[in-house]
Amino acid sequence: MAGLEDLYREIILDHYRSPRNRGELPTPPAQRVEGFNPLCGDEVVLFVDLHDGTVADIKVSGQGCSISQSSGSMMTAAVKGKSVAEARALIRRFKGLMSIHEQALGGEADQLDEDGADGAGADDPDVKLGDLEALQGVVKFPVRIKCATLSWNTLTQALDEAPA
Amino acid sequence: MTAVEAGRKAATPLDVARVQADFPILARRVHGQRLVYLDSAASSQKPRAVLDAMARFYETSNANIHRGTYQLAVESTEAYEAARRAVARFVGAPDPRGLVFTKNVTEAINLVAASWGGANLKAGDAVVLTEVEHHANLVPWLMLKDKLGIELRFVPMGEDYTLDLTHLDRLLDGAKLMAFTAMSNVLGTLTPIRRITDAAHAAGALVLVDGAQLVPHVPTDIAALDVDFFGFTGHKMCGPTGIGAMWARPELLEAMPPFLGGGEMIRDVRLDGFTTAEVPTKFEAGTMPFAEAVGLHAAVEYLGALGMDAVREHEVSLTAYALRALKERHGDDITIYGPSEPAMRGGALSFTYKGIHPHDVSQVLDQKGICVRAGHHCAKPLLRRLGVGATTRASFYVYNDESDVDALVEGLSDADDLFSL
Questions:
Q1: What is the CATH number of the domain that holds B389?
Q2: Which of B24, B81, B389, B392 has the fewest C-beta atoms lying within 10 Å of its C-beta?
C-alpha cells in the first residue's frame, strides 16, 4: 500500500512551502498561458519569456494543491535558462514518468501521444530529472497525476503557441 | 406547536447502530482503517434492502416494461408503476401522473429547459436563478440563453450564506420562471421554498426546484410547497444510480413538447409523423431503468420506515455536534462556509483549513479511511463568490454518528502536522 510519505516527499513539501519563480512577468515580452484542472478547480498561470530559442525567464502563479504547486515550482527551476529544445525534452521525460498510469486512466492518452511522451525522449537517460524524481510517487495515487502534469501541459501549450 | 410539529417531536429517534448494520459497505476497511463515509451529498451508500430488491427483481421478474403480454413483463411493468406511485407518495406529489422518471436531476432539469423552455421562452424572456446553484441548474439555462437569447437574473447570496431575498420581487418582475436549489450542495443552506414560490407565482412566474439535496434528508411535501417542477435523484437517497425524477404539474407536462424521442413515448408513428403517449410516458423515451426504479422503490420504503422526521432530527443534531467540535478543536484555523445555525441547514459542511489545499486535506483523511469531497462541488460561480478555488466538504447521512465527526476532527490535525509551514 502506498503511504502518504510516497506522495509528500520532503523536497515536494519544500517547493510547496517555498515556491520558486512565483509571480508574474510583463506581457509582452512574456506570454501568459493558463491551465485548468476542471476536476478540482486548480489553475496555473504561466508567464514564459522566450528569447533566442531559450526560456529566458519563467514565472508561475495561480492556485492549487501541494502537488500541482510544487510540480510547477520544480518545473520553472528546471527549465529556466534552458533552450526550448531542452525544455521540450524535459517535458517528454517528465510526462514519460507520469504516463503509464495516466494512460490507464484513459483521459490524457491523446495528449501524451501529441507530446511524444511515449516516443523518443521519454526514457532518454541524458535528460536529467533531478529533484523532479521526487514526484515519481504521484503515480501511486492515480487521481493526483493530473495535479502533477498541469503546469507541464501548460508549458507545452506556451511553447506551441510561441511566435516562431 | 402545531399538531404536526407535536407529532414530529414524538418520532422515534434514529437507532444509528441498527442503521449502520443495514449498509454492507460500512463493514469494509480502507487502508486498514474503519470506513468513515462523509460524502453522501455526492452519493449515498445503499442499504441491503435496496441491493436485495434489485437482485430479487433480476432473479425473478426481469423483462422489458410496457411491451410483452407474458407474465414476467406484466410483473415488471407493475413493479415499475408501483415504484412511480411509491416515489410520488414519498415526496408528497399531488398526482403520480406528474412523476417522470429520468436518469438523474441533471436530466430532469434539462428536460424542463429543453421542452418547457424551448416552447415557452423567447429572446428577452427572463429566468431567475440564484448564485448558489449547482451547475445542473445553471448550464441548461446558460445553454438556453445561448440558443434563444433569454435573460438570466440571479438572486445573490447574503453575508450569512443564506439567499438575499431583499430584491426578490424586482428580480421576478416580468420573469417567466424561477429555478432554485432547495438546499445548497456546498453551503448546506435550506431555501425558504414556499416563500419564494409564493412570490414567483404572484409575479406570474412558474417555479422549478432542484431537490437533489433536500429529498434524501428532509421530509418533502411537494403539494404543500406548491411548486410547478420538482427534480430529485435516486442515488443520493439510498437508491441506485441511473434513476431520478422530475415531478411536474400534469397539465404542464401535457402542454409541453416531448424531450427525447424514441420507443415508449409514442402513441403512433408513421413515416411522416408521430403522436405522443399520455403523460408521464410521453417523457420516458427508450427502455427506462426499470430495475433501478425497483431499487428506488425499496429506498423510499427504507427511508419511510426510518421516518424522515427522525432522519432530519438526527442530521440536525449531528451537524450541530460537528460545527461545535470542529470549532472547539480548530478555532480560527477552520473556515466553514454555511449557516452556523443547524436548523437553517442540512448536513453538507464545506470548509477550508489553514490554507491547506482541499486535495491535500482529503488525501490525508483518506489514509484514515475518511471519505470527503474536495473541489468546487460543481458550483464554480458560488466558489468564486466565496473567494476560494476549492473547499473540502464533509456531508452526513443516516449511517453517520459522532465517532465519524471525531475522526474528521482528528484527521485535520494530521493534515496540519504534514503541511504546516
A1: 3.90.1150.10
A2: B24
For residues A5 and A20, give the distance between their C-alpha atoms in angstroms, rounded to a whole number: 22
C-alpha dist (Å) from residue A127 to A119, A150, B260: 14, 20, 54
Residues B86, B158, single domain; the answer is yes
Q: Is B36 inside any structural domain?
A: no
- Whether residue B418 and residue A8 make contact (CB cut-off 8 A), yes or no, is yes
Are the beta carbons of B359 and A13 separated by less than 8 Å?
Answer: no
The yes-or-no answer on residue B238 being catalytic is no
Whether residues B219 and B243 share a domain: the answer is yes
Give the model's pLDDT for residue A119.
47
Distance CA B52, CA B240 (A): 12
Could you tell me which residues are beta bridge partners of residue A47? A32, A59
Given this model, what pLDDT does residue A131 score?
82
Mean pLDDT on B397-420: 95
Nearest CB partner across the interface for A65, out of B360, B376, B380:
B360
B280, part of any domain? yes
CA-to-CA distance for A151 and A161, rounded, in angstroms? 15
Clarify whether residues B301 and B313 are in a common domain: no
Cell numbers found for residue B316: 440536525
Establish if B42 belongs to a structural domain.
no
Domain shared by B352 and B213, yes or no:
no
> Residue A9: closest CA among chain B residues belongs to which residue?
B418
Task: With cut-offs at 50, 70 and 90, classify the pLDDT of residue B309.
Answer: very high
Domain ranges of chain A: 4-161
The pLDDT tens digits for A34-53 are 998 877 678 899 999 998 89
Q: Which CATH number does A4-161 carry?
A: 3.90.1010.10
What's the pLDDT tens digit per position in B249-301? 999 999 999 999 998 899 999 999 999 999 999 999 999 999 999 999 999 99
CA torsion angle for B404, B408, B411, B412 (degrees, to 10)? -170
Domain interval for residue B15: 3-30+307-419
